[in-house]
Amino acid sequence: AASASSTPAANSAKNGFEALKLLRSTTLPPSPILLDVMMPVMDGYAFLAEQRKDPELASIPVAIITAGYGVGRARVGDSPPILPKPINLPRLMSTLRQLQSRPERTI
Q: DSSP characters for 17-79?
């Protein structure tokens, strides 16, 4: 059994606006972001655009999860990995390991 101190913490937000607010208010270095595309208020693509503009947040790795909405929008330039729903757990874990092992992204 994992102790509380060895279990990574996870945070969630209901939309992209809340996620940006949460990321900007924390002092802990964040782990990779699992970003759902379909969210109210600010969707995943709007969040990604804002995240990449912010020098404090731009290097945080992101993986997009989607049921197919706007997949073509994500496949341009320096796009994050895309995981289709329903989520395949081994693929998710592999993607997270890859994201954690990447050097920090610079803008």
A: HHHHHHHHH--SPP--EEEES--SSS-HHHHHHHHHH-TTTTTS-EEEEESSTTHHHHSSSSP
First to last CA, the chain: 40
Q: Residue 35 has which token pair?
A: 């970003």
What is the pLDDT at residue 105? Answer: 47
Q: In what order do the strands lie in the sheet with 62-66?
A: 33-36, 62-66, 82-84
pLDDT > 50? residue 1: no
Question: Bigger pLDDT: 62 or 39?
Answer: 62
Q: What is the pTM of this model?
A: 0.73
